[in-house]
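ARCHIVE RECORD
Type: protein–small molecule complex
Small molecule: pyridoxal-5'-phosphate
Source of inputs: curated submission
Record status: active
Notes field left blank by submitter.
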Amino acid sequence: MAGDLSGKKPGTKIVGAGRRKEWTGQVVNPPVWRASTHLYASEADRKAGGSQPKDGKFYYGRQGAPTQWALAEALTQLEPGAAGTMLYPSGVAAINSALLSVLKPGDVLLISDNSYEPSRIMAMGFLKRWGVEHRFFDSLDIAAYEALFCERTKAVWLESPGSLTMEVCDVPELTRIARERGAVSLIDNTWASAIGFPALERGCDISIMSLTKHVGGHSDLMMGAASAGERYYRRLRQTSQQMGNVVSPDDAALALRGLRTMEIRLERGVQSARVIATWLRDRPEVAAVHCPVLEGDAGYALWSRDFTGGCGLFSFTLADATPESRAALVDNLKLFGIGYSWGGYESLALPYDAAPIRDAMPVPGAEAGGGDNAGAAMSIRLSIGLEDPEDLIADLQTGFAAMKAI
Ligand SMILES: *Cc1c(COP(=O)(O)O)cnc(C)c1O
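STRUCTURE (tokenized, with ligand):
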């Protein structure tokens, strides 16, 4: 129904993407095709299908059915430069499968120090055991990063903004250096999504997203995706099929439903995050706010240059707080849930300390800890949902009052 979406604005693409008539039939959304076995019309028909699964052709349930294909195609159409997208049972599965599709024993992986913790653990655990070495790098120190390359450096792992601490790095420059040295660039693009950061156009070879966050958008499904141009899409597909990654048609239908409203949810997240981060910045209890969509933030210049959007996820560091006073703050929030994940319609707060999961990068706000906690950044990450920001501010105000009463 959608016709040619190339050249259309993201809001138009997100509505039409993946909705092929042959998949949707007479309704708006592709039905949930529960299928392991695809039946052929005849033996001749089966033989004509060939011995290798092809995109968009029935073969066997592991290669999916129209519900999953519609989601994969929608994500491909949203990522400028992508030839295809593979779906995975979680964001972590997408990260690991993408890395395994470009690395082999003996290779060296450069990994941004502020990457999502399970990505770091994959490098330090499975990949190391498999014979892949890794070096953590400071994504804000380009000279130090460049000096880490050696003959065996085959891949660079990026995430921007970084997990928890929200540093924005110069992706076009980091990927240019990687390309020059013959290394593949992969990026965890979960924060901005392709709507907010066209990763392949900014120099990355493979763009990975946890669909659990913004695409699902309703905190009720787990899924991941990796998109790439022709060359790396083929590698992703081969590896994924060998590893047996598959997602359920029910979850694919939920992810497609979430995707349709993602752009307006992201926009609203940015607007509310700006209001709340601005308020937090003026609070005496707050030592630093880490919010790249806010003018004045250390990452704002690169964010404005390279990004076309963002989301409502940011963090802040408390001044003179202790683990107990920080706990009193979050325990007294009524509108923010305490929990992992983000990108749902509801707000979440997560206390964190990034110091134990950094090797090469300083922790912003680390000088703020007071008393026994000198040198420890007492920080909280907020995922701003669709509630009214005024109500969320009032909720935080209650939390601060409880914190001061300790
Ligand atoms: C949550 C998250 C993931 C992992 O996704 P899951 O679907 O939870 O496995 C990967 N990267 C980032 C940045 C995340 O926040």
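CURATOR ANNOTATION: Residues 262-281 form the longest helix (20 residues).
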